[in-house]
Amino acid sequence: MTVLGNMNVFRKMYDGDSDACAAYALRNVFTGDTVDVGLGGLRDFLSVNQAIVMGSTVALATVASINGTVLTMPAGLGAGGKGDAGYLFVLGSSASQVGGA
User: Which residues contact 58 (CB under 8 A, 6 or more apart)?
Assistant: First the structure.
């Protein structure tokens, strides 16, 4: 398990002032990796309501586990020891009012 940062997670789209949605590109991720989209990490959200992952080795969109603003990548990513690529879609409460986005 790795805490993902700016080398693995790239914000591609962000929209919203109070409620927000964001799309992040993922690179070299594995099952169990975590990313903090809150003030302690990417600084985009105060809370997360939904988090969906679409990986290149996962056949369907899969829900990421949510613990506050820390998201854990679902099973099936990075099968065979090769890092996966894909997208992470997040919906939640925006941190833009506190200088996040």
Answer: 74, 76, 77, 84, 86
pLDDT, one tens digit per residue, over 59-95 is 678 899 999 999 999 988 887 778 889 999 999 999 9
62-99 burial string, b = 16+ CB within 10 Å, else e?
Answer: bebebeebbbbbbebbbeeeebbbbbbbbebbbbbeee
E strand residue ranges, 1-101: 9-15, 19-29, 34-36, 45-55, 62-63, 65-67, 70-72, 84-94
SS3 82: coil
Sketch the domain layout of the chain as residue ranges: 9-96
CA neighbor of 21 nearest in space, from 54, 55, 53, 45: 45
